[in-house]
Amino acid sequence: MMRKKLLSLLMIWTLMMIMLVPAFSSCSAETLGYGIVNNTDVALRKTPGGQKLIRLPKDTCVWIRDEKTDSKGSLWYEVNLGYLDGGSYRARSGWMKAEFIDAGDTLWHDIRSVKAGQYGMMALRNNGTVECVCDMNSRELRGWAAGLRDIRQVSLSWLGWGFYALSGSGTFSDPDGNTEKDIRLACEYGYPYLITKDNRLLTGEITGFTWIWPRDASSEELSRVTAMVNTDYRLILLADDGRVYAACSANDDGLYPEPDWENWTDVASIDAGISTFSGDRPYQYTFAAVRKDGTVLAAPDQLSDMLSPWWNIKKICIGYQWILGLKEDGTVLILAPGGTKTPDVSGWNGITDIGNGGDYIVGVKTDGTLVFAGEHSFSD
After folding, report:
1. What residue ranges in 86-209 does DSSP mark as E strands?
2. Which of 156, 174, 181, 294 is deepest in the core (most CB within 10 A)?
3. What is the side-by-side strand order in the sheet with 244-248?
4. Is residue 195 part of a domain?
5. 367 lies in a domain?
6. Count of domains in the chain?
7. Strand, helix or coil at 373?
8. Residues 209-230: tens digit of each pLDDT
9. In angstroms, rounded to a whole number, what is the distance separating the alpha carbons of residues 35 and 54?
10. Using one digit for the tens of pLDDT, what is the confidence trace for 54-99?
């Protein structure tokens, strides 16, 4: 009798494991995120092994949504991608054989930090090299990134159309091959903001640049700036003593919630962007900062109230759907000001950096690999 009971329990356990395999496969695919086509002229198909939709060249960037094993034992990925067709931008989805896509720790390894945008992402490796992806320009961008060395900071515009890197030798580079020497800090949105080694603030072709707080920063004050964040018409500088400087261009449309910059002190990290809120003004410019004691500052007031329970925070990352908070213990918090469904990050731990791409999020793990959540659509 006992033997029969043990056999029955064993059969039940085996059936449960078989039933759970697809669920585990789906979860593993979710964490793969961005991938790169590693072969030439690979077919995107309607179903695994089915009708050909289009053919993709090598270095095409895809977003992996799901995975499936066919009857022959071949692994397939369901992917989203964005591409140019006769001068028009298009987004497609379909299935590709997994063997033709570099993804997971095959592609994302030894990573120190990330910058995520709506149409692309940059990853800085511990050895100072850079890996970057972007929907329809990945071939050119990866070729540019392959030549970068001694990089200590990377940046990109939120839409992912501008990728920039700052080298340890003080040379600012962009994907068009332009370089400027003697640059200490760089940040870009359409046009670059630069701080030179002799601590001059350069604002590219943006005109009507006006300081909001505290005043026109002196050369000595700019020498203490260690980070830069910008949006459409606003530039935020963070100094090593925790002070924040803010400036805007003449094109500022007046929709920014003006924080009480004077009281934004002892700041360790800062971010800014456009977020989705419920109510009469669904899209609002947002600012958030983490103080050195792990508490949070934010604007507008609606966001400040939402983030007031957050504590022991290391970094905040703003996106148009979600606000991310990286805690000191390596876990991640996520908030949707507009009430949209949030990706599940409850199982994330050992995270050292985060990026917010709008409809996807990415975390850097202690082992230098990446974890993704969300479902990137490449939609415009």
Report:
1. 88-97, 101-102, 111-117, 120-125, 130-134, 151-156, 163-167, 171-173, 179-181, 183-189, 191-196, 201-202
2. 156
3. 210-213, 244-248, 234-239, 225-230
4. no
5. yes
6. 2
7. strand
8. 788 888 788 999 999 999 998 8
9. 17
10. 999 999 999 999 999 999 999 999 999 998 888 888 899 999 999 9
Give me 378's structure tokens. Answer: 């490449």
Predicted confidence band of residue 203 (pLDDT cuts 50, 70, 90): confident
Of 67, 87, 102, the one marking the end of a domain is: 102
- C-beta separation of 80 from 93 below 8 A: yes
With a CB cutoff of 8 Å and minimum separation 6, the contacts of 257 are 284, 285, 286, 287, 299, 300, 301
Distances from the Cα of 189 to the Cα of 132, 199, 229, 280, angstroms: 17, 20, 10, 27
Judge whether 349 lies within some domain: yes
- CATH number, position 65: 2.30.30
Place of tokens 């064993």: 10
Which H or E run contains 291?
strand 283-291
Note the pTM of the prediction, 2 decimals.
0.89
CA 64 to chain centre: 16
* Nearest in space to 361 (alpha carbons), one of 113, 76, 117, 23: 117
**Could you give the CA distance from residue 31 to residue 25 in angstroms, rounded to a whole number?**
10
Q: Residue 351: which CATH number? A: 2.130.10.30
Residue 61 lies in domain:
2-102
CA distance 151 to 349: 27
Cβ 38 vs Cβ 102: under 8 Å:
yes
Last-in-domain residue among 55, 83, 102: 102
Q: With residue 247 as reference, give the H or E element that holds it.
A: strand 244-248
Peptide bond into 214 cis (omega under 30): yes
